Amino acid sequence: SPRFDGRVVLVTGAAGGIGRAVAERFAQEGARVAVNDLHADAVQRVVEGIVTAGGSALAVPADVADAAQVEQMFAHIEATFGHVDVLYNNAGLIDTTRHFLEADEEWWDRIIRVNLKSVFLCSHRAARVMARRRRGVIISTSSGGATRAHRGNVAYDATKGGIEAMTRAMALDLAPYGIRVNGVVPGFINTYGLTDEQLRVREKTVPLGRYGVAEDMTGAALFLASDDAAYITGQFISVDGGVLVQ
Ligand code: NAD
Predict the structure, then answer these.
(1) What is the pTM of this model?
(2) For the chain, what is the domain count?
């Protein structure tokens, strides 16, 4: 039977980019997938694609940085599928660059809210039910910026460093309840529609010699969610063509 037969997987920020590829792959492997993003129409298109391909999916549009919307989203999933087995925290703002000297409080608060608070809200809501069931997996999305500075990304890098620290701390608190907490570190995954010319220039800096595509993220995501990773918690897997080891 398929690896995720009947498992319930919530992917946040799944209307496009990495989240969509991960949601589609979980569905191909038999999961019942709750598809989240901000806008209902974009979420619905992803759900229709999964269902047309023979998979099972539910549209749960919500702002994952808003506690009331997160509560409604989980209640909707539980009413439909019963529970959540796997939470894949992927939603985030990626277009956040601003030189530190041009920063202001609004910029800082928005990025912290969407990229970091959302991971707390979703993980906390998911973990409370997972703890009662004595099983569950939480996977969150970091960035190379957590350990190596990106120019103009003080706030973004702070959220990703925060996600790595939170992941280790949650892994400890939740281990006695049978919940594993891990993460992925994407790098140079072309979700931003770069031109061929831009790709050729930047590809020279990737040891494996090419840009990643969203589908490159799905192997690590599914591995960490699967029982093959039953003894792994508090860890991150980089999926970046070798960029971070240079
Ligand atoms: P993307 O912009 O295509 O996907 C992010 C999604 O999150 C979007 O669909 C967006 O609408 C959604 N989103 C934003 N705010 C939201 C909110 N409040 N509630 C619900 N959904 C919300 O970008 P991507 O490249 O696919 O990035 C996905 C994740 O991977 C992000 O966390 C990003 O920081 C991380 N990441 C990506 C790369 C890369 O190379 N692409 C590198 C490092 C980290």
Answers:
(1) 0.98
(2) 1
